[in-house]
Design brief:
Length: 347
């Protein structure tokens, strides 16, 4: 075991504080990474505050991790010391079920091992995430980060990037397609950049009137302020695909009615409460509401390579570890432009 330092929540009600804990020794299939930057995802806040149910404390959140490889296990051929590596939302899986076997280990039937707020395959050793100085992971679950991209701006790709890239790819965003992005936060601002780079015509649907300029700068062609009463009604029969990144419990009905025939509204936002669906709205033109969670390791690597090719990074505000609590409050208030990233040198 090697002792490292991180920032941890000790309970659902408390603030995050400095905490020392152990990382395992580097096994034959592992790499060790000196974490440099860790993004703050809204999912970190949902979990710290137990909005998704009972959590494991102390909790060291963080699943948007970028750093430098410092050690490589005997069986690892794919990484070497000095490489820039990333770690996303999960760090292991059973390896045997139909989804692990088909390259979709994030859908593991025996449960993927989440990067934090989870247990290793032994079912009892807690996992600790990226708000820390170092991490040890199986190399098969680590990613290669394009070296020319800004490292702080790359960390959020490991969750926000792949969570939006995967459904955009799966639902064929591209030239000739009208894609709407609901919510311009961490996920939303990645969805806009990636969908625009894929060639789609992008519209941002935002409840914040002051995000228009940023939407257009990020690559959207249209901005719609949803608080305007008739804004969504006027968009009837418009979109082929809607990516819903909203973190709050909202009414999907007015959005579903903006879909064209065969259009899909894909939910990636996870407020932790059920949505109400009106079957009639879906039946009329064979519209669908679907969901998507993160992406496979291959999709994550494909996304990083895509972002490397198109020079896409997250727009970030780099903070020190003692600013995490304040950053959480700003994220909840939709006051993040557009991802907080912790400089782990400050831990
Ligand atoms: P975020 O940065 O807080 O962005 C969420 C955006 O939702 C806000 O910026 C805001 O955009 C909009 N919003 C917030 N409250 C709203 C309200 N009351 N009404 C309407 N719009 C509202 O969060 P994030 O990190 O992007 O995460 C978004 C959600 O995705 C979270 O629930 C997170 O847990 C979930 N998530 C899911 C996955 C997955 O695998 N499916 C992965 C990562 C995160 P505007 O100001 O533009 O309206
Ligand atoms: Zn996340």
């Amino acid at each position: 075991m090697t002792t490292t330092r991180g920032f941890a929540a000790m309970s659902a009600n408390g603030s995050l504080q400095a905490w020392e804990f152990d990382r395992r020794e580097v096994g034959a299939q592992d790499i060790a990474i000196d974490v440099e930057f860790a993004g703050i995802c809204h999912s970190d806040i949902h979990q710290v505050r137990e909005e998704w149910g009972t959590a494991i404390f102390p909790m060291v959140p963080g699943h948007e991790i970028v750093g430098t490889v410092t050690a490589v296990g005997a069986d690892v051929a794919d990484f070497k010391v000095g490489d820039i590596a990333g770690v996303g939302c999960y760090v292991d899986s059973c390896g045997e079920c139909e989804y692990c076997q088909s390259g979709h280990s994030h859908w593991c039937l025996n449960g993927a091992t989440w990067t934090y707020n989870g247990y290793e395959r032994d079912g009892s050793t807690p996992t600790y995430g990226g708000y820390s100085k170092s991490i040890v992971v199986k190399a098969d679950y680590a990613l290669h980060v394009p070296a020319h991209l800004d490292r702080a701006g790359t960390a959020p790709l490991l969750c926000a990037g792949v969570t939006t890239y995967a459904p955009l790819m799966n639902w064929n965003a591209g030239p000739g397609k009208k894609v709407a992005v609901m919510g311009l936060g961490g996920l939303g601002h990645m969805a806009v950049q990636i969908a625009a780079a894929m060639g789609a015509e992008v519209t941002v649907l935002s409840h914040s009137a002051n995000k228009q300029d940023d939407s257009l700068t990020l690559g959207a062609t249209h901005f719609v302020h949803t608080a305007d009463g008739s804004a969504l009604t006027n968009l009837r029969n418009t979109f082929d695909l809607i990516i819903n990144t909203v973190s709050a419990d909202i009414d999907l009905h007015p959005y579903i009615n903006t879909l064209r025939a065969h259009g899909s509204l894909v939910v990636v936002g996870a407020p932790g409460k059920p949505y109400s669906i009106d079957a009639g709205e879906l039946m009329g033109r064979q519209r669908s509401v679907a969901g998507s969670a993160i992406g496979s390791i291959k999709e994550t690597q494909d996304m990083l390579d895509f972002c490397g090719t198109h020079n896409i990074t997250s727009v970030v505000e780099v903070i020190s570890a003692n600013e995490i609590d304040a950053a959480y409050d700003r994220v909840v208030n939709s006051d993040v432009r557009y991802r907080f990233v912790i400089d782990t040198a400050t831990i």
